[in-house]
Design goal:
The chain is 88% helix and 6% strand. The chain is built from three helices and two strands; from the N terminus they run E-E-H-H-H. A hairpin with a 2-residue loop joins strand 1 and strand 2 (9-14). The relative contact order is 0.02.
Length: 199
Amino acid sequence: MADVEYKGVHLTGIKGSYLFVLLPLFGSILGGLWGGFELWSRYQSMEQKINEYVAPDLSGFDKRLEVFDTQLQEKLKSVDTDVNALKELVADAQESARDIRTDIKGEVNKQEDQIAAIDKRSRSESQETRTIIRNAEKNFGELEMGMLSTIRDLVSDTSKRWDDKLTKVDSQIENLEKKVDKKITKALENPLAAMSKTK
């Protein structure tokens, strides 16, 4: 048997093994009681908040909804009138399209008739055109041969003229170079030029 004293509480005659079982049991009981009291206090504070709750005033929101609803109805009416006007426009456009389609069909038929007539004329004229082209090709070939010979003669004459002119220019350049060389040698052989350099 053992004597146990804890925070002013004195227990006698308790075995050590019971003590290890009783102490956690008492701790659990005390913890459960404390948790229950804490839960009860939170429940009371929550109940007080719920009782004090006042619903917000939504009358302004309701008024705004009414204003929005009236505006929406007015817009829907204007949209209905616009839709009706568009329906009338579409009906008019359909009638105009039908009239245009019949006019176009008539014009297409006229054009087809005219194209058939032109096709007949073009067939007969194409034969004439072919014969004219053949004759023109023959004449062009003869003309081309004559032009080529004329061009060849002109080119040969032109090249001869250029050759003659170039030879003249070359001889003139050579004469000029000789004259310049003579003047340079005279100037270098001049004794007065040497005296002016020494001064």
